[in-house]
Specification:
Helices cover about 50% and strands about 20% of the residues. It is of the alpha+beta class.
């Protein structure tokens, strides 16, 4: 498109039309595009904010990297590939954990729970002290086995950090036959005293998980001291996690998987991506409806400028040239709305981020008081591309109807 075509299109955009209704419809078209664009920026930013918030919650207990067996539930820590991980100088800590389901009982209350056995290096791979809500963190005090429960699980079992009674844990024997006459003899039994409760505001942790010492978990589930379900890896620097992940995967071979925090919570982040995609599709549909305003305003503009079209034709402008003028004119309406919408959307998100205009609520039912927002450059580029692409398509149809 040459300079003359651009100049004419710009003049048509801002000049007075023969009918005032065309100016009004053009303004409505740009306004509709701006509103939808701002809404897309705000909605996607809020979803990013919630995703980051939940990611931070998970990271309080999830390690930076988690090594798990590719098949089966356990791995051996005395094998050569695993032993080589401990010798790496770029790792701050490598912690063992053993996680399986057991039955827990306190007085007359009993229910299944996820038992996570951790060693002394667990605190180097998790921020457990920051999520303790009552009592303190301890799984072994030098004399007695201790346990730390999720706040919801403690409420269900009827305990708190100040109770002195023991929590009993039961798990079936992994080997041997079940004695039908005395089924209780086929259960392994351990007990621990509660030290504290924790909460990260995620049901799969708060309502299901309890922490015990690794030796207790190994005894309860019938494993020796070299058996674990996973290794928790804490690097000295988190700047090049992907490179470290690839190096560890290469050392361990195909028998093991190395999971980052996103892969450890793959189901959650997959659902979040699906929700984000569905939200984008819904807003695109609304934008598509708003784009019909551009078709209407451009069609009326073409009728209004029919005399100009004849003059341009007599001056030597061919049909493709005139079509490009009105195509660019219609696209400019969309571009103007996009620019205004981006500015409004980013400004609203900035204000929400700093001032918390839109409140969630107050009290213990809310983790934060205001909606979290996080504006990301890829979202801005994606929204701009979608809006401008739909604006181009909306302008293309009426411009193709021009006949000399």
């Amino acid at each position: 498109m040459n300079y003359l075509e651009n100049k004419i299109a710009w003049r048509y955009l801002f000049s007075k039309k023969g009918h005032n209704a065309i100016n009004i419809i053009s303004g409505i078209s740009a306004g509709a595009v701006a509103v939808v664009t701002a809404a897309m920026i705000c909605v996607l930013s809020v979803m990013n904010g919630f995703g980051t918030l939940v990611e931070q919650m998970f990271s309080e207990l999830d390690p930076v990297l988690l090594v798990v067996p590719a098949e089966g539930q356990t791995l051996r820590t005395d094998t050569l590939p695993i032993a080589s991980i401990y010798a790496r100088e770029d790792l701050e800590a490598v912690s063992m954990q053993l996680e399986q389901t057991a039955l827990i009982r306190y007085k007359d209350h009993q229910l299944p729970a996820r038992v996570l056995g951790v060693d002394s290096l667990f605190t180097s791979t998790a921020h457990i002290d920051s999520v303790i809500t009552d009592g303190y963190y301890s799984v072994w005090d030098g004399a007695f086995e201790r346990t730390v429960l999720g706040r919801g699980l403690a409420a269900q079992i009827g305990m708190n950090a100040h109770f002195t009674g023991a929590l009993h844990l039961y798990a079936p024997e992994r080997t041997g036959h079940i004695n039908l006459m005395r089924p209780d003899k086929s259960l392994r039994h351990e007990h621990a005293f509660i030290a504290g409760t924790f909460s990260i505001n995620q049901l799969e942790y708060d309502d299901q998980l309890l922490l015990v010492s690794l030796p207790l978990a190994q005894r309860l589930f019938g494993y020796d001291e070299h058996t674990a379900s996973a290794l928790r890896v804490q690097p000295k620097s988190i700047l090049k996690i992907e490179d470290l992940k690839l190096k560890i995967s290469k050392i361990l071979g195909p028998g093991y998987k190395v999971l980052d925090r996103y892969e450890q919570q793959a189901d959650f982040f997959r659902i979040l991506r699906i929700e984000k995609l569905l939200t984008i599709l819904l807003l695109v549909f609304i934008l598509l409806i708003a784009s019909f305003n551009i078709i209407g305003s451009l069609s009326m503009l073409i009728i209004d400028k029919s005399e100009d079209i004849r003059i341009l034709s007599h001056m030597g402008a061919d049909e493709p040239t005139i079509r490009r003028i009105f195509l660019f004119e219609g696209w400019l309406i969309s571009a103007l709305g996009t620019l205004i919408g981006l500015i409004i959307g980013i400004a609203v998100c900035w204000g929400q981020q700093h001032y918390g205009w839109l409140k969630l609520g107050t009290g213990y039912d809310y983790i934060i008081s205001a909606y979290p927002v996080q504006v990301q450059a890829p979202d801005i580029l994606l929204v701009a591309f979608i809006v401008l692409a739909l604006g181009f398509l909306a302008a293309y149809y009426p411009s193709r109807k021009i006949k000399l």
